[in-house]
Every structure is written in structure tokens, then in C-alpha cells.
Write a structure and sequence with these properties.
Low-confidence stretches: none
Radius of gyration: 17 Å
Distance between the termini: 63 Å
Number of helices: 5
Structural class: mainly alpha
Shape: elongated
Number of strands: 0
Order of helices and strands: HHHHH
Oligomer: single chain
Mean pLDDT: 85
């Protein structure tokens, strides 16, 4: 098994990409893009360069990410939605 195929290396690389994407939101363009898109782009670049394997290679790390972490992240992101402001926006559109 190649070093880049090790689950701990893949998990560490994914964590570093999340940290770096969070750091990039300090810039105005980073806030516009958002952390999830930045993480996807960074991991796609890492995968295409060959630093980490793609999800199609069947690493157990990706199984855990797609089964547990991605749905949890979506749930946490939805908790930040202000439903009252969405209702006000909807009412104002029909004014």
C-alpha cells in the first residue's frame, strides 16, 4: 500500500483542507465562495494531483465521510438558517 493510500494520511489531508478553507474565509472572496465549496475544490485539486486517492478508489475514510460527516455537516448548516428572515423575504416579494 502506497503512503498516500493510508487512511490516516487521507483523513489528515481532509482535515488540513477544511482548516485551510476556513482560513481562506478571512478574505472577502473566500467569504463569498464559502467553506464547503472551497473544501470541495481543494480536495478535487489534491485528488487530481495525486496527493490523495479519489473516492472511486474505495478508501474506508471516504465511506465514513459520506455516511456520517456529510449528513451531519448538512444538518449543522441548516441549523444556521434564519427561518424568520426567509419568511419576511417571501412576504416582501408579494408586496
Amino acid at each position: 500500500m502506497n503512503f498516500t493510500q493510508e487512511p490516516i494520511f487521507i483523513a489528515a489531508t481532509l482535515c488540513i483542507s477544511v482548516f485551510f478553507a476556513n482560513w481562506l474565509t478571512r478574505f472577502p472572496w473566500g467569504k463569498t465562495v464559502g467553506i464547503p465549496i472551497l473544501v470541495i475544490v481543494l480536495c478535487a485539486i489534491f485528488s487530481n494531483i495525486g496527493i490523495i486517492p479519489s473516492a472511486m478508489d474505495g478508501s474506508p475514510v471516504y465511506d465514513g465521510v459520506f455516511v456520517y460527516l456529510a449528513p451531519l455537516g448538512i444538518f449543522i448548516a441548516l441549523l444556521e438558517v434564519d427561518l424568520k428572515s426567509l419568511k419576511k423575504m417571501r412576504e416582501c416579494q408579494f408586496c
